[in-house]
Description:
alpha/beta; Amidase signature (AS) enzymes
Amino acid sequence: MDGTLTRLPGHALASRLRAGELSSREIVGASLELAERHNRALNAWLTIDRERALAEADSADARFAAARAEGPAATAALHPLLGLPVALKDLVSLAGGQCTAGSRILEGYVAPYDAHITERLREAGAIVLGKTNMDEFAMGSSNEWSAFGPVSNPWDLDRVPGGSSGGSATAVAAGHVPFGIGTATGGSIRQPAALTGTVGMKPTYGRVSRYGIVAFASSLDQIGPFARDTRDAAALLHAVAGRDERDSTSAPVPVPDELLTLPAGDDEAAGWLRGKRLGLPREYFVAGMEPEVEARIREAVAALEGAGATVEDVSLPHTDYGLATYYIVAPAEASANLARYDGVRYGLSIREAGRDFIADYLATRGAGFGPEVKRRIMLGTYALSAGYYDAFYVKAQKVRTLIKRDFDDVFGSGIDALVAPTSPTVAFRFGARIADPVAMYLSDACTLPVNMAGLPGLSVPCGLAEGLPVGLQFIGPAWSELALLRFGRAYEAITAGAGWRSLEPAQLHLADDPSARTPMDRRAALA
């Protein structure tokens, strides 16, 4: 297979598919070969379904052939994802496929139906290559909490890719697929995108249906795209977004078709910045931010100003409460959602003759849940308990309202979007924060407030610090995904000539070694 295929963006592959220069089977075959070869060293994939993927590729090729026979109009009407591979985070239901959410308690569970976004991907003609690794029940910022082992960052195999969607982020960064699906509860798309040098978007809450997604915190969870550039991220969002009657939180807001027509030319893309007002929130330059990360963010802001945008210092005064508020609301909702895993209806069941149901229940949950999930269930149950509900949960929801109001006030003043760091640090080494949950939680300090407010956020690469990727974050008002992607595309355009743009993940070549150490071995060696 042609190894260069796996480094092409999705829109370039789509153009060649339409022209008949490539087949979907060629593209999918190259992706399968690379993903299977790298997976020992990266552990990004929990399952790779070769047979299904190749069969779907053949079906896509038949659709292309029929459209080409009808003429250019029929070919142009095909969705740009047709025939292209995508990675699904392993909490998205895929009929007949596993759906473990990274947990032993769902090991062996086979989903009986497709999630809404799986249906939408099938309609577009995208090909699911397999299911990607993740922090258990999406609880984590490093992808070290998966019951099936950690994931390595292809920029440095001794470092984390971020979490909880680290498997999808790594699969995209390593070139296994041009598109990946992640979910974000507190930053689990943008943070791994920043740490792996990919593009990641958390849409407005309600933009994408959560039907068929394993729940963590229902008022925060949202599905979003990973890609290697903004045009691909926009195309993937277009495919999966939209109203779904089966999800009461899915909003009846039209999905703009302009997501499929972001400018290809750099001059046109950069023109979006002229006259725009960007806010730079001072609270996002948090204590502990690495100096080189801050330097890259300041350089990116200067580049945006140089291209015609006005950047103004703004304040979001309740940002500092975001972390504490999130770690009351999210665990509380998790404790309720995870109560369904009882060893009776599906998933792991540990039973012993002569033992009562409660003992079996405790044994099942004790063996099935990992330490981070147990920690958050206990925190959430405590916050919801009699005597503490008002003191913790209700107060946290009031503070959440204040966080949302800060954003409303800034956008109400005429600011088009906020620009900020995505992560205060680059990717850290395996084990560096496992023993200190608070330090781990601080990894999401720059992303949590956006989830708490239900707003969209986009992370795009903005250079390297210590040879590792840094992410630049754009934040907008509700339903402004198209505008944010235009900002991201404009930043890509004005930095198109930067040397770091042409760099590949520095240690990806090490994953080609069939005897390479696994991420679990690497973590053990660093302990």
